[in-house]
Amino acid sequence: xxxxxxxxxxxxxxxxxxxxxxxxxxxxxxxxxxxxxxxxxxxxxxxxxxxxxxxxxxxxxxxxxxxxxxxxxxxxxxxxxxxxxxxxxxxxxxxxxxxxxxxxxxxxxxxxxxxxxxxxxxxxxxxxxxxxxxxxxxxxxxxxxxxxxxxxxxxxxxxxxxxxxxxxxxxxxxxxxxxxxxxxxxxxxxxxxxxxxxxxxxxxxxxxxxxxxxxxxxxxxxxxxxxxxxxxxxxxxxxxxxxxxxxxxxxxxxxxxxxxxxxxxxxxxxxxxxxxxxxxxxxxxxxxxxxxxxxxxxxxxxxxxxxxxxxxxxxxxxxxxxxxxxxxxxxxxxxx
Length: 336
Fold this sequence. Notes:
Layout: E1 6-11, E2 18-22, E3 29-31, E4 36-41, E5 44-49, E6 56-60, E7 66-72, E8 78-84, E9 96-101, E10 107-112, E11 115-120, E12 124-129, E13 132-139, E14 144-154, E15 171-173, E16 179-182, E17 194-197, E18 203-205, E19 213-218, E20 224-229, E21 235-240, E22 248-249, E23 256-261, E24 267-272, E25 279-284, E26 292-293, E27 301-308, E28 314-323, E29 326-335
Antiparallel strand pairs: 1-2, 1-28, 3-4, 4-5, 5-6, 7-8, 8-9, 9-10, 11-12, 12-13, 13-14, 15-16, 16-17, 17-18, 19-20, 20-21, 21-22, 23-24, 24-25, 25-26, 27-28, 28-29
């Protein structure tokens, strides 16, 4: 494409976006504690400094392989990611979860059949297979799974068009090991319910009415939930998981999408079309004050929040540009 595809960052406090490097549509992106950003590309897992530069190929894709969702494991040597070499709608369910050493290039297949894996601090890998989330014990020192997988919850909503896209699951895991997810449906307009799963495994449906829930995100302390609802208008809500208060509407103007908590849990960044093209905003998580605009997208583009830096000072976001009735993705970052 002749489009200017880039990763950029922007400061939460506002200002001009800072270009970090070039990228096509990223298949998953994570901001790591070692001050780098990992993201999936057609040629493999790329890495770029949070301060910008030329993205480097950290892990080369095998012939015919597509990678997704890289995550730097504790120890900063091994990278966890999903891999598939098959085509069709089931390609991610027929894929593998693997880890590869940045130092030696050694690759280990951890899980056969499944994708969208996340390492959680409890010492487990959580991953998706079809519409089911599984957890399996993981030995970091030996870099291998222990025992067999356990079904955590069934009926999880996943991304559409997996034959050409990712198969990202609509779930989030807090550092304490609590899980929130969207129940899957056969149509985008289907109403869903929300459920919470703790380390012991039981699923507890939240005391919330059915709605068109998407993009649930737990706060860093695992006590609050931010979630988007679709319908006549897309709205972001927050909910105290103690159940002591009713669900609170956070956004009022326009359509708002894809909430992302700041690391300190004080603010929520999101995308909105309230002032024109979809741009980035942030707002106090308790609903006080007014939303502040962080970026201003050009006509024919949309800005989508992806991840915060660990210190909460910088936000990585994706830029999509329309071309020939379609969309091409870019990625950006800004200091906050």
